Amino acid sequence: NAGVTQTPKFQVLKTGQSMTLQCAQDMNHNSMYWYRQDPGMGLRLIYYSASEGTTDKGEVPNGYNVSRLNKREFSLRLESAAPSQTSVYFCASRVGQGYSGANVLTFGAGSRLTVL
Amino acid sequence: AQRVTQPEKLLSVFKGAPVELKCNYSYSGSPELFWYVQYSRQRLQLLLRHISRESIKGFTADLNKGETSFHLKKPFAQEEDSAMYYCALGRGGSARQLTFGSGTQLTVLP
Q1: 3-class DSSP assignment, residue B79
Q2: B101·A48 Cβ contact <8 A
């Protein structure tokens, strides 16, 4: 039972390059999220997908795009990377149905991205 | 708008001492509060949530709606409690996202 799997774990980019962070969950969860973690700022929501076929902007969506490919997969794309996007990125998922445990997130291990 | 404030970025206590990690929130509706923890080289994971009113690893947290607080407490800290702790706020009902605080790095000294 892998839970939430993110790839790659580490990536170094040059300014202007593009890349896609992949996320997959095997728990049949409906909702998926992308957060970035920066020192002193906690976790900030970039984009989320409440269910397959829908995506919505979070707190800091500028410079990012997402795709909910199917129920399992939710990718995050940086079209033209900037140094300000140097961060640790976390994918998370939740059941998304009913109230009990509705807001309990399961996180991936994180992807550390450095933009030079 | 909902907001979560964790006033202490760093907190150090000695083993066996009581520890309290502060969390204040602002939200006009019915809040759902959580504490998540990230141990070194491990994934972020749920520690506890207010609706469960449970004690996990000796930690408790009580939701105080009057003071809009959800402080995390443990009477006797252990070295293995050293970690980054995040307080998180979700809207009640059909909430779709959590708002996290900036985190408190707890170090328990021997």
Answers
A1: helix
A2: no
